[in-house]
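Supplementary material to the annual report.
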Amino acid sequence: MPVYGQTDAAETARADREAVREAQSDPAEVALVDRMRAGDEGALATLYDRWSDRVHALAVHLLRDARDAEDIVEETFWQAWRGAARYDAARGTVGTWLLTICRSRALDRLRARRRRPEDTSIDDAPPAEDPHGDPMAAMVTSETGRLVRAALAELPAEQRQAVELAYFKGLSQSEIAEKTGQPLGTIKTRVRLAMVKLRDTLGVLRESPL
Amino acid sequence: MTSPRTHDQVREDLGAYALDALAPDERVAVDAHLATCQACRDELRAMNEAAAALSTVAPARPMDPIRKAAVRQRLLERARTDNSGVRPIRSAAIPARAAALPWWIAAAASVAFVVAMYQRGVVQREREDVRAALAAESVRVVQLRDSLADRERMLLALSGADVKVVDLVANNRRPNARMFWAQATNTWTMFAHDLPTPPAGRTYQLWLITRDGQRISAGTFAPDPTGNAVVSAQYALAPDALGTIAVTDEPAGGVPQPTGEIVIAGQPR
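Predicted assembly:
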């Protein structure tokens, strides 16, 4: 419901607080993983209802294929079910865990595609950010997305490229060095600086008073 | 042998670690340090969150509601089977491309769609009815696709070069069964015949018994009214580890170890 008379700054602050909540551990979600560990299928259903769209968005973004993305969504939640005992809240939120599983499975599939020469090379796929593509591309999934996009836009182009090749294409630092023709040490520096910047962006949000 | 890294060296690698962009030996070195350094574990958590946050720039792509519901249903079925102690056979993905559909399924969906379009112009109530029917028809299409995929998978599980066949028989009685063990995929498919309906509170339970005496439950089942049953399970077993396959009569819900009478049993040839 709109609040009339709210300033732009107040609106931005509200959005930032929303982003903070997204970045922090949600005890209710940790409890869902605990219940899955105990074999509670209802907890799996609830986690799926909460996260399947986000997981699907990432899978489509990485794979550019609806059928493959759907497979990855199913495999992500299945792996979460089977591996609930291995979830460690100290290493990240439940959402981070699910998205990490999704990315890992999707990148496995991308690598398998690379080994099949008859398939389209991932290099032929649209770039990770394609503002001129599908109109939906203009939408980001959350306020965190808006902030991360802004943080990425502020990075020097070569740092942004390095981190995008690593995250969205699954390339190692050595592979990025080979692909870009830059020394490995240079790539390591770019990745490090970019990740510190992203970490600080989220860190500042967490430290802001709610 | 990887030389130990200093705290500062590891710290510099944590961003790449979170992106899974380190070389394997670098990753091992970071893991070794993380095991002893709380500060680096805290920093890694922040880096993990930063890496996962990159996913949020992916444009929203909501799943088709029917397909989303179908995936949800499959996951829950797999979880239920998992809870019952039998590793489920993974359901095939729903084919996304219309060209992959048999013509009669595509035709059925098309007819339902045309009907829905016609009804839209009549009255609101009828439109809602047709919409519900269309949704039900779409679910049925998905189920038919799954069913076809299941049959294709079963054919593979019965006919591959790696399939070992074990006959299960009873002593002077009619029940019998044949187990097809597809070793490449660890898939077990048993067809049983002439099984009497178990009395109330009882069930049949399938066991894989290894040469060294380990008794592995492959699930409980009941025959249909004609005495037939098809049981599928997935379990990894070394090619020469199988000693006996048996079906026993057990209390409803099954038991961790066999306690009842052996109904049929067989050994690999």
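The longest strand of chain B covers residues 242-251.
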